[in-house]
Amino acid sequence: MKIEQRMEELGIILPKTSPAKALYVPVKQLGNSLFVSGQAPFIDGIPAYTGKVGGERTLEEAQEAARICIINTLAAVKEYIGDLDRIVNVVKLQAFVNCEIEFNQQHIVINAASKLLHDIFGVEGQHARTAIGVNQLPMNITVEIDSIFEIQGQ
């Protein structure tokens, strides 16, 4: 089954990508690897989730923010390579959770992102991962995720 067809079955619609908010490129290719810059929980170019988990934001809200980050990641990849079926493997996620100092469930927040990738790509969606709690993120966003994908062809 095609990846975008699977996404449609899951109720996922890829958004139009937003331009980079600073001096970087959204996707950089090296051989068959795609390095995707940190994606934020933006909807229509506006942060959908801001604030710290364990403070202004609940665990469930942070999980939804992580899902939006992955959807935005896939939108950036599609814009770069044109066809998500070229993805061979999700290699790694590096995730940052803006949280209060006593919050220690960053891994549970990012499980939502990992689950979504598994739901979309199956076994090829399983990946290495880091989930880090931080004191602040740009624009006070709740979650930011960067990623690495392996693709077919160059």
TrEMBL record:
Record-linked Pfam families: YjgF_endoribonc
SUPFAM superfamilies: YjgF-like
Domain (Endoribonuclease L-PSP/chorismate mutase-like): residue spans on this chain: 5-141
InterPro entries the UniProt entry points to: Endoribo_LPSP/chorism_mut-like (IPR013813), RutC-like_sf (IPR035959)
Organism domain of life: Bacteria
UniProt-listed Gene3D superfamilies: RutC-like
Entry-linked PANTHER family: ENDORIBONUCLEASE L-PSP_CHORISMATE MUTASE-LIKE DOMAIN-CONTAINING PROTEIN (PTHR43760:SF1), ENDORIBONUCLEASE-RELATED (PTHR43760)
Entry protein name: Endoribonuclease L-PSP/chorismate mutase-like domain-containing protein
Gene source species: Bacillus cereus TIAC219
